[in-house]
Amino acid sequence: MPAAPDPRPLTGEPLALDLLNTRWMQEGVVQDLLRDVDGLAVWLDANGLGGDHTPDERMLRHALQARDALKKAVDGPRVEGARAVDAVLGHGRIRATLTVDGPGELPEFGDPAWGPAWLAARSYLELLTTAPDRIRGCAHDSCILHFFDTSRNGTRRWCSMAACGNRAKASRHYARSKDA
What's phi and psi for 90, nearest 5 deg? Predict the structure, then answer.
């Protein structure tokens, strides 16, 4: 049976940031997709991991640990974040392979319940390698979402121009018209 629809306002970010974005603000209240195993199933499904992993309480605990680690790494002190992400990465490894299609890499986990959490932590390493300065939090004061800035000039400020960007513009317009 397919998972329920994904209720989050921002999806499709790289796996590490998509895991962070399982918490978001809605009408001033923090929402949490990972409050239960059903929410984990939605997140796994949204990221193409639903068929590979059957969600359970252990997998949920590991995903929450990875999310907390990524939050520390993205928004907190570098030392604390590095230790936390490294603790998650300690539960898996990459094995080099050679297939008929050529060289490849295969993630391996001592406990498969660590798979999605480990893949998210690994995704963060890839973002750091690609462009660490493009890992951003939304500039809107009441938004807690994160994104990877893929704009040409690297100046994206909002998780979504339609939501947070528009709210900021409307607030500025209201302030200008009120002053006039």
Answer: -65, -10
Locus of tokens 């239960």: 36
pLDDT of 147 higher than 60: yes
Asked whether 119 and 19 are in contact (CB, 8 A), the reply is: no
Give the residues across from 148 on adjacent strands.
135
Q: Is 94 helix (H, G, I), strand (E, B) or coil?
A: strand
- Dmax (CA) of the chain: 70
Higher pLDDT, 162 or 133: 133
The first and second tokens of residue 3, run together, are 């998972």
The two tokens of residue 15 are: 């796996």
Give the C-alpha separation, 154 to 94, whole Å. 31
What pLDDT digit, counting tens, does each position of 111-136 carry?
A: 999 999 999 999 999 999 999 999 99
User: Where are the alpha helices (H) located in 76-161, listed in sequence order?
Assistant: 78-89, 115-130
Amino acid at 156: R
Sign of the four-CA dihedral 71, 76, 78, 81: negative
158, 168 contact by CB (below 8 A): yes
